[in-house]
Amino acid sequence: xxxxxxxxxxxxxxxxxxxxxxxxxxxxxxxxxxxxxxxxxxxxxxxxxxxxxxxxxxxxxxxxxxxxxxxxxxxxxxxxxxxxxxxxxxxxxxxxxxxxxxxxxxxxxxxxxxxxxxxxxxxxxxxxxxxxxxxxxxxxxxxxxxxxxxxxxxxxxxxxxxxxxxxxxxxxxxxxxxxxxxxxxxxxxxxxxxxxxxxxxxxxxxxxxxxxxxxxxxxxxxxxxxxxxxxxxxxxxxxxxxxxx
Length: 245
What we know:
There is one protein chain. The protein starts with 8 loop residues before the first helix and ends with a strand. It has helices at about 10-15, 20-25, 45-50, 65-70, 110-120, 135-150, 160-165, 190-195, 200-210, 215-225, and strands spanning about 35-40, 55-60, 75-80, 95-100, 120-130, 175, 180-185, 230-245. It has a single domain, classed as 3-Layer(aba) Sandwich (Rossmann fold), CATH 3.40.50.150. Strands 1, 2, 3, 4, 5, 6, 7 and 8 form an eight-stranded mixed beta sheet that branches. Helix 1 packs antiparallel against helix 8 and helix 6 (about 135-150) packs antiparallel against helix 10 (about 215-225). It is built from ten helices and eight strands. It is an alpha/beta fold.
């Protein structure tokens, strides 16, 4: 698993969107019990924090100790530095396993073997992600040109799995039909700029070229944003759910 975000953990915690309640409303009725959940590659704990409201215990792991320093605290969340593919958890430990905007970085075979080992009978796995956001046609055109033409060559190959909506990631579970969900946020322009700065391709570009590529489009974004203080931002959710065993 790659670690592209340790150096910007504070920005990641501040500017990455959390996930809509509709995800949890779909998942929870599928479970026999809510004793223990594993939020794998938790980052700054956005999903773990929500799971902690309903589960007795949440194990939240990430390979980045720096990310975990910025994670949401809760008495029933146990944060630990562990790789997704190899954990110290006992067999048959979890009722629910979640991975949010991270599974595309994993070794799929090893991770799936680990899920089958630590998942309980009738447990559920949920792979969650989100596509490029939609705001207005003018803003979207600027962001998509930036995504493709400016930082396009700097995306890791694994990014293609997000573009494919995780359809080509091995998923050896009994897959369940999921609802279409859109994550809706009300953002100011600074939220959008902060979010763009958390892109892994932006980090790669800046490391190679010594300057921040987001500055190239900032003026165009301000003009397209206009005088409106907040705008509706739509993130189409990627959502794959299955029975582990």
